[in-house]
Amino acid sequence: MKRHTPEEIVTKLRRVEALTAEGSIVADAVREIGVTEVTYYRWRKKYAGVGKPEARRLRELEQENARLKKLVADLALDNDILKEVARGKF
Predict the structure, then answer these.
(1) CA distance 47 to 15
(2) What is the pLDDT of residue 47?
(3) CB atoms within 10 A of CB 4
(4) Do the Cβ atoms of 90 and 84 come closer than 8 Å?
(5) CB-based burial of residue 63 (10 Å sphere; 0-12 exposed, 13-18 middle, 19+ buried)?
(6) What is the rounded CA–CA span in Å between residue 42 and residue 85?
(7) Residue range 64-77: average pLDDT?
(8) pTM, 2 dp
């Protein structure tokens, strides 16, 4: 299963918009871009009105958020270890 980049998603959403504007039904347009209708509607909900630069920035922010969450988890673990050492449990 391929993970699409936000830029690819925005491109595919625009393709569906173009196809439906030409008279295709959504089911056929979605089939042409190679995803399910469920995926299309999930993407549309998340990326509605987003251009490629905004999608790229969103991806960067999501990566930064993941990095920061890991950092917080590591610091919390270090803090717990230091508390246990201070209590004399090790």
Answers:
(1) 14
(2) 86
(3) 15
(4) yes
(5) exposed
(6) 47
(7) 95
(8) 0.61
Contact yes or no for 10/47 (Cβ under 8 A): yes
> Alpha-carbon distance 76 to 21, whole Å?
52
Q: What is the 3 state secondary structure string of the chain? A: CCCCCHHHHHHHHHHHHHHHHCCCCHHHHHHHHCCCHHHHHHHHHHHCCCCHHHHHHHHHHHHHHHHHHHHHHHHHHHHHHHHHHHHCCC
pLDDT digits (tens, 9 = 90+) for 11-35: 999 999 999 999 999 999 999 999 9
